[in-house]
Amino acid sequence: MYKVSAVLIGILIAIMVTFNGVLANYTDQYRAILIIHIVGLIAVIIILLLKKEKLNLKKNIPFYLFSGGLIGVFVVFLNNLCFNSLGASLTLSLGIFGQLVLACFIDHYGLFGLNIYKFNKKKIIGFLIILSGLLTMIKY
Predict the structure, then answer these.
(1) Coil/strand/helix, residue 13
(2) Among residues 95, 69, 70, 71, which one has the least CA distance to residue 17?
(3) Can you tell me where the transmembrane regions are (predicted)?
(4) From CA 96, how far away is CA 100, in angstroms rounded?
(5) pLDDT for position 99
(6) Is residue 116 within 8 Å of residue 109, measured between CB atoms?
Protein backbone atom coordinates (compact mmCIF):
# COMPACT_ATOMS: atom_id res chain seq x y z
CA MET A 1 0.00 0.00 0.00
CA TYR A 2 2.74 2.46 0.93
CA LYS A 3 4.67 1.77 -2.27
CA VAL A 4 1.58 2.51 -4.34
CA SER A 5 1.05 5.68 -2.30
CA ALA A 6 4.67 6.68 -2.98
CA VAL A 7 4.08 6.31 -6.73
CA LEU A 8 0.94 8.44 -6.35
CA ILE A 9 3.06 11.07 -4.57
CA GLY A 10 5.37 11.17 -7.58
CA ILE A 11 2.44 11.61 -9.95
CA LEU A 12 0.97 14.39 -7.83
CA ILE A 13 4.32 16.17 -7.57
CA ALA A 14 4.70 16.11 -11.35
CA ILE A 15 1.23 17.62 -11.76
CA MET A 16 1.87 20.17 -8.98
CA VAL A 17 5.20 21.35 -10.40
CA THR A 18 3.66 21.71 -13.85
CA PHE A 19 0.64 23.66 -12.59
CA ASN A 20 2.79 25.85 -10.36
CA GLY A 21 5.24 26.62 -13.17
CA VAL A 22 2.46 27.55 -15.57
CA LEU A 23 0.77 29.68 -12.89
CA ALA A 24 4.05 31.56 -12.42
CA ASN A 25 4.00 32.35 -16.15
CA TYR A 26 0.54 33.90 -15.78
CA THR A 27 1.44 35.97 -12.72
CA ASP A 28 5.02 36.14 -11.44
CA GLN A 29 7.10 34.04 -9.08
CA TYR A 30 6.07 35.70 -5.84
CA ARG A 31 2.37 36.06 -6.57
CA ALA A 32 2.27 32.43 -7.72
CA ILE A 33 3.89 31.28 -4.46
CA LEU A 34 1.40 33.34 -2.46
CA ILE A 35 -1.58 31.93 -4.39
CA ILE A 36 -0.27 28.36 -4.09
CA HIS A 37 0.16 28.59 -0.32
CA ILE A 38 -3.15 30.38 0.26
CA VAL A 39 -4.95 27.66 -1.70
CA GLY A 40 -3.09 25.02 0.34
CA LEU A 41 -4.06 26.75 3.59
CA ILE A 42 -7.71 26.89 2.53
CA ALA A 43 -7.62 23.19 1.61
CA VAL A 44 -6.22 22.22 5.02
CA ILE A 45 -8.76 24.40 6.82
CA ILE A 46 -11.59 22.73 4.89
CA ILE A 47 -10.22 19.26 5.69
CA LEU A 48 -9.93 20.12 9.40
CA LEU A 49 -13.48 21.49 9.41
CA LEU A 50 -14.88 18.43 7.61
CA LYS A 51 -13.09 16.10 10.02
CA LYS A 52 -14.20 18.32 12.93
CA GLU A 53 -10.66 18.44 14.28
CA LYS A 54 -9.14 21.23 16.31
CA LEU A 55 -5.65 22.53 15.75
CA ASN A 56 -3.94 21.23 18.87
CA LEU A 57 -0.17 21.49 18.96
CA LYS A 58 1.86 19.37 21.34
CA LYS A 59 4.18 21.15 23.72
CA ASN A 60 7.95 21.14 23.38
CA ILE A 61 8.05 20.84 19.59
CA PRO A 62 11.60 21.68 18.45
CA PHE A 63 11.51 25.13 16.83
CA TYR A 64 13.37 24.04 13.69
CA LEU A 65 10.49 21.70 12.77
CA PHE A 66 8.35 24.75 11.98
CA SER A 67 10.76 25.71 9.19
CA GLY A 68 9.12 23.22 6.82
CA GLY A 69 6.77 25.92 5.57
CA LEU A 70 9.67 28.24 4.81
CA ILE A 71 11.50 25.43 3.05
CA GLY A 72 8.29 24.75 1.10
CA VAL A 73 8.30 28.34 -0.18
CA PHE A 74 11.84 27.90 -1.48
CA VAL A 75 10.96 24.52 -3.01
CA VAL A 76 8.04 26.03 -4.92
CA PHE A 77 10.12 29.05 -5.96
CA LEU A 78 13.00 26.92 -7.25
CA ASN A 79 10.67 24.45 -8.95
CA ASN A 80 8.91 27.29 -10.77
CA LEU A 81 12.23 28.84 -11.73
CA CYS A 82 13.71 25.58 -13.03
CA PHE A 83 10.46 24.45 -14.70
CA ASN A 84 10.51 27.41 -17.06
CA SER A 85 14.14 26.80 -18.05
CA LEU A 86 14.50 23.02 -17.87
CA GLY A 87 10.98 21.65 -18.34
CA ALA A 88 9.07 19.33 -16.05
CA SER A 89 11.00 16.09 -16.57
CA LEU A 90 14.51 17.44 -15.98
CA THR A 91 13.38 19.65 -13.07
CA LEU A 92 11.73 16.70 -11.34
CA SER A 93 14.54 14.25 -12.16
CA LEU A 94 17.26 16.49 -10.78
CA GLY A 95 15.11 17.30 -7.75
CA ILE A 96 14.52 13.63 -7.03
CA PHE A 97 18.26 12.95 -7.33
CA GLY A 98 18.92 15.69 -4.78
CA GLN A 99 16.31 14.17 -2.48
CA LEU A 100 17.87 10.74 -2.86
CA VAL A 101 21.37 11.95 -1.98
CA LEU A 102 20.25 13.89 1.09
CA ALA A 103 17.86 11.13 2.21
CA CYS A 104 20.73 8.61 2.17
CA PHE A 105 22.84 11.02 4.22
CA ILE A 106 20.00 11.56 6.73
CA ASP A 107 19.39 7.80 6.98
CA HIS A 108 23.08 6.96 7.37
CA TYR A 109 23.59 9.33 10.29
CA GLY A 110 20.07 9.16 11.75
CA LEU A 111 19.69 12.92 11.61
CA PHE A 112 16.69 14.67 13.18
CA GLY A 113 16.25 11.80 15.65
CA LEU A 114 15.42 9.23 12.97
CA ASN A 115 16.47 5.59 12.93
CA ILE A 116 19.87 4.87 11.43
CA TYR A 117 19.97 2.97 8.13
CA LYS A 118 23.63 2.64 7.18
CA PHE A 119 24.60 3.31 3.57
CA ASN A 120 25.22 0.08 1.70
CA LYS A 121 28.02 0.34 -0.87
CA LYS A 122 25.85 -1.61 -3.33
CA LYS A 123 23.65 1.49 -3.57
CA ILE A 124 26.47 3.22 -5.42
CA ILE A 125 25.54 1.14 -8.49
CA GLY A 126 22.02 2.56 -8.37
CA PHE A 127 23.34 6.09 -7.91
CA LEU A 128 25.62 5.69 -10.93
CA ILE A 129 22.79 4.36 -13.09
CA ILE A 130 20.55 7.27 -12.07
CA LEU A 131 23.36 9.75 -12.60
CA SER A 132 24.07 8.38 -16.08
CA GLY A 133 20.38 8.77 -16.92
CA LEU A 134 20.42 12.34 -15.67
CA LEU A 135 23.53 13.16 -17.68
CA THR A 136 21.85 11.71 -20.76
CA MET A 137 18.74 13.84 -20.13
CA ILE A 138 20.89 16.95 -19.66
CA LYS A 139 22.87 16.34 -22.84
CA TYR A 140 19.93 15.39 -25.06
Answers:
(1) helix
(2) 95
(3) 7-26, 32-50, 62-86, 92-112, 124-139
(4) 6
(5) 94
(6) yes
CA distances from 81 to 28, 34, 57, 77, 116 (A): 10, 15, 34, 6, 34
pLDDT tens digits, 78-135: 999 999 899 999 999 999 999 999 999 999 999 988 999 999 999 999 999 999 999 9
**DSSP per residue over 32-87, as a string?**
HHHHHHHHHHHHHHHHHHHTT----PPTT--GGGGGHHHHHHHHHHHHHHHHHHH-
How many CA atoms within 13 Å lie on the side-chain side of 110?
6
- Assign 3-state DSSP to the chain and report helix, strand, coil percentages, each to 5: 80, 0, 20
Residue 101 is classified by DSSP as: H
Q: Looking at residue 130, what is its pLDDT?
A: 95
Q: pTM of this prediction?
A: 0.82
- Supply the mean pLDDT for the chain: 93
